[in-house]
Design a protein that fits this description.
single chain; 148 residues; mainly alpha; Arc Repressor Mutant, subunit A; two-stranded antiparallel sheet; 7 helices; DNA-binding MarR family transcriptional regulator
Length: 148
Amino acid sequence: MSDEPLIPYETTLFVRDTCLCLHAQRAARALARRFDDALRPLGLTNGQFSLLMALNRPEPPPMGPVATVLAMDRTTLTAALKPLERRGLVAVEADPRDRRGRLLRLTVEGRRLLTRAFPVWKETHEKIDRQLAAVDMAALRAGMLAIA
């Protein structure tokens, strides 16, 4: 037996019940599972849907702004793009203004799939909103944005 003082179990319960990081992680995983389940028939994960939606712009964006909106580093974004690129949903092209840079473009097939996926996302989101009817969703979103 060690002479190191133990943190009391009550402290463990306190952290379990009050830790914002733990609660945010648990909620994020539960939400991700819900959206993954809903989007699975279309062959998408919630992360892939978010990435396709982030590319839905009038002009193909460079990688940096897309990585920022998705809270990813460029390496993670590059890895996330690979399966979408293999499926022909996204094209990664050289930036004509700076050949070192890359622009990300939704292909016609990517736009078609996003058009089919959006109503699924919307219906799933509406179900979650109804389940959280007692929660001030504007305040919840504002709080999450303030942290992000």
